[in-house]
Amino acid sequence: TEDWLIDRTAVPWRIEVRGALDGGKVQSLERRIKAAVSRNANFIILQLEAEGGDIRHVGSLANLIRSLKDG
Questions:
Q1: Could you tell me which residues come within 8 angstroms of residue 15 by beta carbon, excluding any fewer than 6 positions away?
Q2: Residue 29: its pLDDT value, please?
Q3: What pLDDT, on a 0 to 100 scale, did the predictor assign at position 70?
Q4: Does position 3 have pLDDT exceeding 90, yes or no?
């Protein structure tokens, strides 16, 4: 198995989203992810219970998640 934390202590954060996605929820989720990272989170669990909504805004969220780097 691969050790993603390379023997560092995990600093986990769970972020929940419930309900249909829209621009406001996506922006809130982006702020919550950035806040977790600024508090040294190195293991983020996204609990998405979001069905339907406006998918136009999820591209920016995907870009943010893709850009996250530990270190």
A1: 29, 32, 33, 36, 44, 45, 46, 47
A2: 92
A3: 61
A4: no
What is the Cα–Cα distance from 2 to 64, expressed in whole angstroms? 24
pLDDT grade for 36, boundaries at 50, 70 and 90: very high
Contacts of 68 (CB under 8 A, 6+ apart): 33, 37, 44
Give the gyration radius of the chain's Cα atoms.
13
Q: Taking CA 57 as the corner, what is the angle to CA 52 and CA 27, rounded to the nearest 5 degrees?
A: 100
CA separation for the pair 47, 40 (Å, rounded): 19
- The CA distance from 49 to 70, in Å, is 26
- Helices 58-67 & 23-38, crossing angle to 10 degrees? 10
